[in-house]
Amino acid sequence: MSVALLLLPDFLLILLGKLLYRHLRFGDDFWSGMERIVFFVLFPALLFHSTATTRFNFGTTGDMLICGMVTFGCGIILGFLARWLFDARSGDRAMLFASGVQTSFRFNSYIALAIAGRLSNNDGIALMALLLGIHVPIANAAAVYALAKHSNNHVLREMARNPLIIATLSGLLFNVLGLQLPEFAAMTLTRLGNASIALGLISVGAGLRLSGASQEKGMITWWLCIKLLIMPAIAWMLALHYDLPPLQRQIVVLFTGLPTASSAFILATRLGGSGAIVAFLISASTLLSIVTLPLWLLLVR
């Protein structure tokens, strides 16, 4: 099956979410509630089950994690360079920078796990879960630092309560201890995980917004290029350097080339930033990834 056809069902679910939001008018409370269920219940079930039941090769897996972390660090540095490249150190432009810079390195976990599962079922999901578990706290800390509204203690507290991190670490501990899930528990977690993929992608589509972009076209273009082109290119070169196995190479390039996180909008608005520029960047990166992700996966196959 071609890469484009492999990813087509996931992007069709995103389109379905947009159509449902536009035509059925369930209301924002409905969509917000559905996203909370996915984030706090369904996705953690998927992450725990995948990391608890997959057998890892920790030698090559460590190399994959290094590739991801180095690439992610480069994305953060390049994203923050926009402050000087586009003279965004004061006034309204400074707030636009603080709000939007997070979109150059944050990632959409729903799309990540959906495509990872399409690549290799539980093995792909488990590898992606490791990358997500490590990088979620780093991404949150860098995003909050840019907005400069909360103390470090608050950031650490939020990380400690993040259900994706808790589920991943719990699953890894379960795995390392050599424990086995009872059949009824494994089946329950599997069904919850299956529901998370479809509902998560539909939620992404419902959140697409292409209006309200600012005039900062230079910064917008810079951040989109970092997220969808530069970061996956760096990851690909590192994967070749470390001679990663094919699946790990695909997963790390996929992870670094994901569109930005839907939650970036929530963070920007809660901390007094510009929601309009973030909403546009989320939507633009999601739609552009329909083209860039298949190309990257085709390249690294």
* Main structural class: mainly alpha
Radius of gyration: 18 Å
Into how many domains do the coordinates divide? 1
Quantity of strands, as a count: 0
Helix-strand pattern: HHHHHHHHHHHHH
CATH overall fold name: Na+/H+ antiporter like fold
What form results from the Cα inertia axes?
globular
- Unreliable stretches, pLDDT < 50, 5 or more residues? 149-153
What is the name of the CATH class?
Mainly Alpha
Going by CATH, the architecture would be: Up-down Bundle
Strand content: under 5%
Helix content: over 70%
Q: Mean pLDDT across all residues, rounded? A: 85
Biggest sheet statistics: none
Total helix count? 13
Distance between the termini: 12 Å
Describe the structure.
The protein is mainly alpha-helical and 301 residues long. It starts with a helix and ends with a helix. Helix 6 crosses helix 8 and helix 11 (246-256) packs antiparallel against helix 13 (275-300). The protein has helices at 3-23, 28-53, 58-80, 82-85, 91-100, 109-147, 152-160, 163-176, 183-206, 217-242, 246-256, 263-270, 275-300.
In short:
This protein has 301 residues and is mainly alpha-helical. It contains 13 helices and no strands.
What is the fold's blueprint, element by element?
Elements: H1 3-23, H2 28-53, H3 58-80, H4 82-85, H5 91-100, H6 109-147, H7 152-160, H8 163-176, H9 183-206, H10 217-242, H11 246-256, H12 263-270, H13 275-300
Helix pairs in contact: 1-9, 1-13, 2-6, 2-8, 2-9, 3-6, 3-10, 3-11, 6-7, 6-8, 6-9, 6-11, 10-11, 10-13, 11-13, 12-13
